[in-house]
Design a protein that fits this description.
The complex is a heterodimer.
Chain A: E1 3-16, E2 19-25, H1 27-30, E3 38-42, E4 53-56, E5 59-61, E6 66-72, H2 76-82, E7 89-96, E8 108-114, H3 121-128, E9 133-140, H4 149-154, E10 158-163, H5 164-167, H6 170-177, E11 185-189, H7 192-205, E12 208-212, E13 228-231, E14 237-239, E15 246-248, E16 252-253
Parallel strand pairs in A: 8-9, 8-11, 9-10, 11-12
Antiparallel strand pairs in A: 1-2, 1-7, 2-6, 3-4, 3-7, 5-6, 12-15, 13-14, 13-16
Chain B: E1 5-7, E2 10-12, E3 16-18, H1 27-30, E4 40-42, E5 59-62, E6 65-68, H2 77-89, E7 94-99, H3 104-115, E8 121-125, H4 136-139, H5 142-155, E9 160-163, H6 171-180, E10 185-188, E11 192-195, E12 197-198, E13 203-204, E14 210-214, H7 219-232, E15 237-240, H8 246-255, E16 259-262, H9 264-268, H10 272-286
Parallel strand pairs in B: 3-4, 3-16, 4-7, 7-8, 8-9, 9-10, 10-15, 15-16
Antiparallel strand pairs in B: 1-2, 5-6, 6-14, 11-14, 12-13
Helix pairs in contact in B: 3-5, 5-6, 6-7, 7-8, 8-10
Classes of the chains: A alpha+beta, B alpha/beta.
Bound molecules: flavin-adenine dinucleotide and flavin mononucleotide.
Residues 38, 49, 51, 53-56, 69-72, 74-78, 116, 119, 214-217, 240, 245 of chain A line the site of flavin-adenine dinucleotide.
């Protein structure tokens, strides 16, 4: 169940230019957080900007009540957020999203991430690795864009990093490994092009696949019907904040 | 201290209402607070048959507010009656159903069904800017409002509140249209037709191109229209449009509203309505106001 917490920023790290990792004290939230869920941050006490900003949970440390999230400065909201300093309180609503990564029962898991879409995958790898082999494939634009290599290595059985300008897309490495590694499910988060490609791949090879989606959001907790995602072969829409953000790849039209 | 009000025959324990389209059918907000903390809840706009709504993006943030083009996505009245109403009825708060149709016949059919249900009232939506047919088309003239409202009145014995659009030159005309047709109350404002363009792509942010503006950005317009409508009509007014806290609720009441709905405020903070209810009581205590009804329409104009 979600709650609102005034969470103290205990550690602020710079991952690379314009990308920050915030560690906040939010025991109420981390206690119930599942991999793939997100939070909604109110960046200002004033009404400007008006809406909260959805950000994925990167990592939780239940023992110490610490929640970590990583964000890139994009526009006004993330710019204000990036100015917070250690000791400041941040208004956080979470955990949100009834549709989290469902990894239970799988033995050989492939995790595919691209660019800033890799953040929600860390907590998944960390948890899934307890009972399964976790093969992680992260794609970045170029050498300068690579991040969190050490962190993902620790929570993966194998880690493959690709650079678009050198190695091509990460999904091609995954495709080559599917049979050798006996992959029985793929989890993915990243740019739309990557998600479409993995949707195709999963269909072609008849492998289960879950993808995490983004869409413009109003509330984040299922009342406004804003963040609509169209279902395959139907005119019906589900919602990222309610049934998602993680969906069966075969179910959605992206 | 008395915070009870009577809105168009609907008794409420305080003047704070959850606005249509920003509280679903109540279940999600119930995970944050008990719904008995607010005077009433107005359901998502509900139609005779389920409605899919518009393609995304449906939401676009703008200065101090947002534009939405949800397009009335809802599961239809039968689903509401079967799955939501039994649960909602157990919550100790007034239940008002926001009813919408694309033809007069649909409005009548829908309200016939609603008349048989255990609900406290109907908010007749003649003001949704996000659907192609119906709704807004009826809401922009004295005759249009009067025609639909009087036909619905014939089949609806329950309290009938007509929701008016601000996309009109003279709000007093539609307000009087509702009153003359026998409505028990009016509610306003629905969202203001709006547009926002991404200058990099030359495309509007919303897939529907236009949508409805809400939030604090519209509040001064809403307060003005509530004031004018309350002056022009004798039936009570449910005010809304950018109210997000207790101070705003008081402002709308002084302008003439009997109760005030909080919409976009809930999207920003699910607790906005509960906090507003507390703030209203604090204001009453501070200003030694014994009965909240005494502030309705109490604005003192400059000479
Ligand atoms: C479920 C979910 C999880 C996310 N997780 C992360 C994360 O872990 N790290 C990260 O850096 N970013 C994440 N994003 C994207 C992040 O929400 C946006 O980058 C952020 O809202 C931009 O806000 P802004 O004010 O800086 O930008 P602006 O462009 O000024 O924002 C304007 C409006 O558009 C919305 N918006 C802009 N981009 C997006 C987007 N990609 N998705 C949804 N809404 C958007 C904003 O919330 C705001 O309402 C996630 C988005 C979703 C939906
Ligand atoms: C996301 C969203 C959905 C809405 N859906 C409806 C609806 O279904 N029916 C309706 O009459 N009004 C709807 N409205 C309008 C609100 O009920 C309210 O009239 C308007 O937003 C102004 O109030 P606010 O500024 O407090 O949001 C919707 C508003 C928003 C923001």
């Amino acid at each position: 169940m979600a709650s609102i917490v005034l969470a103290k920023l205990v550690k602020k790290d710079i991952i690379r230019s314009d990308i920050f990792k915030f560690s906040v004290h939010a025991p109420e939230i981390v206690n119930t957080t599942k991999p793939g869920q997100f939070i909604e941050i109110q960046v200002s006490d004033e009404v400007e900007p008006f809406l909260r900003r959805p950000i994925s949970v990167y990592n939780v440390d239940k023992e110490n009540g610490i929640l970590e999230f990583i964000f890139e400065v994009r526009g006004i909201g993330t710019k204000i957020l990036a100015k917070k300093e250690e000791g400041d309180n941040i208004d956080i609503l979470g955990p949100l999203g009834w549709g989290s990564f469902n990894y239970e029962g799988y033995k050989n898991i492939a995790v595919l991430g691209g660019g800033i879409g890799i953040f929600p995958l860390y907590e998944l790898c960390k948890n899934a690795k307890n009972d399964a082999n976790v093969h992680t494939y992260l794609g970045f634009r170029d050498e300068r864009a690579v991040m969190l290599e050490k962190e993902f290595k620790q929570v993966s059985s194998s880690l493959t990093i690709t650079l678009d300008n050198v190695d091509g897309f990460a999904i091609n490495k995954l495709r080559d490994d599917l049979e050798a590694k006996n992959i029985d499910i793929i989890f993915a988060c990243g740019p739309l092009g990557m998600l479409k490609a993995v949707q195709e791949l999963a269909k072609e090879k008849n492998i289960s696949c879950q993808i995490s989606l983004e869409e413009k959001m109003g509330c984040g907790f299922g009342v406004c019907m804003g963040c609509a995602v169209k279902m395959v072969n139907s005119s019906y829409y589900k919602h990222v904040c309610k049934e998602g953000p993680v969906f069966e790849a075969s179910e959605v039209e992206i | 201290m008395n915070t009870n009000i009577n809105l168009a025959g609907i008794k409420m324990k305080n003047p704070i209402v959850l606005a249509s389209g920003t509280c679903g059918y109540g279940r999600e907000l119930d995970t944050f607070f008990e719904l008995n903390k607010v005077g009433g809840l107005i359901t998502k706009g509900t139609t005779l048959k389920p409605k899919d709504g518009n393609p995304p993006s449906r939401i676009c943030e703008t200065p101090s507010g947002l534009i939405n083009s949800i397009g009335l996505q809802n599961p239809g009245v039968d689903h509401f009656i079967q799955y939501d109403l039994p649960w909602l009825r157990k919550q100790d708060t007034a239940i008002i159903v926001n009813a919408c149709g694309s033809t007069i016949e649909e409005y009548i059919e829908l309200c016939k069904i609603l008349n048989e249900q255990d609900i406290d009232g109907v908010e007749l939506n003649l003001s949704c800017p996000n659907v192609k047919a119906g709704c807004l088309a009826f809401g922009t003239s004295y005759e249009g409002v009067k025609e639909v409202t009087s036909k619905v009145r014939k089949v609806l014995d329950k309290p009938l509140i007509v929701k008016l659009t601000p996309n009109i030159t003279d709000i007093t005309e539609s307000a009087r249209g509702a009153e003359d047709a026998g409505a028990d109350g009016i509610s306003l404002i629905n969202t203001l037709l709006a547009m926002s363009i991404n200058i990099e792509t030359k495309k509007p942010y919303l897939a529907n191109n236009m949508g409805g503006l809400s939030g604090p950005a519209v509040r001064p317009v809403a307060v003005r229209m509530v004031y004018q409508a309350a002056k022009a009509a004798r039936i009570p007014v449910l005010g809304m449009g950018g109210a997000i806290n207790g101070k705003d609720v008081i402002e709308f009441m002084m302008a003439g509203a009997t109760a005030v709905a909080i919409g976009s405020g809930t999207l920003r903070d699910p607790f906005a309505s509960v906090k507003a209810a507390n703030e209203v009581e604090q204001f009453m205590a501070k200003h030694k106001i014994k009965d909240i009804n005494s502030i309705i329409g109490s604005v003192q104009l400059h000479g």
